[in-house]
Write a structure and sequence with these properties.
Structural class: alpha+beta
Radius of gyration: 29 Å
Largest sheet: 6 strands, antiparallel
Number of helices: 10
Number of domains: 2
Distance between the termini: 46 Å
Strand content: 15-25%
Order of helices and strands: HHHHHEEEEEEHHHHH
Length: 384
């Protein structure tokens, strides 16, 4: 087939793909917009840090939006060619559906490679970088938020007061801490000095108190204890949108590369639920990128069906296909997490079903047979 026709078909899909990818990614980003605005307005985070967070969130969004954008773009592009009878003209010129599918196969292959790079390399790195960035922001916000002679309640369950903070801001003097995190006990800690210490590896912020005493009173006011100390550490739990950054000491499954997931699965003593979670994440690194190939095979025969409402029908069919696919995927993952299915079956069943359906529809379209007409004939013969 002439290269000019290949380029024409490829362009017919590439332009809507770029537009749909932008729209879908923006829609997913809107779900995080309230948290981002809270960081900007209420937490005083700089615009540069907000931009960094948005950039780091993009890979995890694009891992899902790229296959969806490809599916809808092929439906819209092929639908437009079919509605304008360009597919009929190409077939009348001796060009088969297999040849027409060649540029779409190239597009599916490109998106597959792009998605597998994103899922295996960019997503783990960006998720970990996001956690570290939020931790850094939380640390800076905690340090900047503590003012002398002001009660600070930015930490869950802890009220902090510092009589004096030197100009360098490295420590606090004459510190009073009210700790209500333990049910049934109210602790008041008085210390001469206090430091905020950040551990970048464990992603924790510690308030280190020196030369003080802890006064503990029960809720019924019947018991009282005093404990003197030279050094006393309190792990701080930062409130609101930035709190999750400091809670995990190790990488979560979404922050691990494939090698790290496989290595952790082999560790002895790991619970079955944890192994299943790691297995799901490992399979997703390949099953989601491969959905680009299967979506391409499925969207082509669906898109070349003659219709009038080209774009609206393409979007509608695309949304239905995507909804069914991700419902199957979510259901499969839920069954895997409960131990009712193996990770292989749960992760790959949606891909297998859509691949078989796509191949069947492609064969039917190549034979110029209508799926619905064949179904009607089958049902008529079955119940005659």
């Amino acid at each position: 087939m002439p290269k000019i026709i290949n380029r024409y078909i490829f362009k017919e899909v590439a332009i809507p793909f770029a537009m749909i990818l932008f729209v879908l990614t923006f829609i997913l980003l809107m779900g995080k917009l309230l948290q981002i605005m809270d960081l900007l307005v209420n937490k005083g985070i700089s615009m540069l840090a907000i931009i960094k967070i948005i950039v780091l969130l993009m890979p995890s969004f694009m891992m899902f939006t790229i296959p969806i954008a490809l599916l809808i773009a092929i439906l819209v592009g092929m639908g437009r060619l079919s509605a304008d009878n360009e597919i009929t003209a190409l077939k009348a010129s001796g060009i088969s559906l297999q040849q027409i599918f060649h540029p779409l196969a190239v597009a599916a292959l490109i998106t597959f490679i792009l998605t597998i790079i994103i899922s295996n390399f960019l997503v783990p790195k960006s998720n970990m970088a996001t956690k570290q960035l939020l931790f850094s922001i939380a640390q800076q916000n905690a340090s900047a938020g503590i003012k002398e002679k002001v009660f600070n309640a930015d930490f869950n369950g802890i009220l902090l007061y510092a009589e004096k903070i030197p100009v360098d801001g490295n420590h606090m003097e004459s510190v009073i801490v009210s700790d209500s995190r333990i049910a049934g006990e109210q602790s008041t800690i008085v210390a001469q000095k206090a430091y905020l210490i950040a551990n970048q590896e464990s992603l924790k912020i510690v308030l280190r108190l020196e030369n003080g005493a802890t006064h503990i009173v029960s809720d019924d006011l019947k018991s009282y204890r005093k404990i003197d100390f030279k050094t006393y550490d309190i792990n701080l739990d930062l409130a609101a949108a930035m709190s999750d950054a400091g809670k995990e000491e190790t990488k979560s499954s979404t922050e691990m590369t494939l090698n790290e997931l496989l290595a952790k699965m082999k560790k002895p003593g790991l619970e079955d639920a944890a192994v299943r979670e790691l297995a799901i994440e490992a399979h997703k690194k390949f099953s989601i990128p491969l959905s680009c190939i299967f979506f391409g095979i499925l969207a082509f025969p669906l898109g070349i069906r003659s219709h009038r409402a080209v774009k609206s029908r393409g979007f509608a069919v695309g949304l239905i296909v995507v909804s069914v696919y991700y419902l199957l995927r979510i259901g499969g993952e839920a069954l895997v997490e409960t131990g009712r299915l193996s990770p292989v079956v749960g992760a790959w069943t949606p891909n297998l079903l859509f691949a078989l359906l796509g191949i069947y529809l492609f064969i039917m379209a190549n034979r110029e047979k209508s799926l619905w007409l064949s179904l009607k004939i089958f049902l008529r013969r079955r119940f005659k």
